[in-house]
Amino acid sequence: MSHQFRQWVKYIERYAQLVELVDSGLPKSVHITCTGSVEDFVKRYLSEIQGRLDDPSLDWCEDLLNNLMSVS
């Protein structure tokens, strides 16, 4: 799952470059591309870290992966 997740995020990062999306918009783009139970999980995760999205020390991608791995 880790490889697939990283590939998914890589595609989203490419999309963000194409549309000139700022870094703080990346997590929301991740949420938009999800469906089903993953969408619910990502939505809850983003609401939990809402105030920290602009924190440069937060590696939200790695943190999200770790959270997803703990429930799967």
What does this structure look like?
- The structure is a single chain.
- The chain is mainly alpha-helical.
- Helices cover 68% and strands 0% of the residues.
- The longest helix has 17 residues, at 2-18.
- The mean pLDDT is 78.
In short:
With 72 residues, the chain is an all-alpha fold. The chain contains four helices and no strands. It has one domain.
Descriptive labels:
72 residues, 0% strand, globular
| Overall strand count | 0
Percent of residues in helical segments?
55-70%
Average pLDDT, all residues: 78
Report the total helices: 4
Strand-residue fraction? under 5%
Distance between the termini: 9 Å
Which spans of ≥5 residues are poorly predicted at pLDDT below 50?
Answer: none
Task: Please tell me what the overall shape is.
Answer: globular
**How many domains in all?**
1
Element order, helices and strands?
Answer: HHHH
Structural class, please? mainly alpha
Largest sheet: none
* Radius of gyration, whole Å: 12 Å
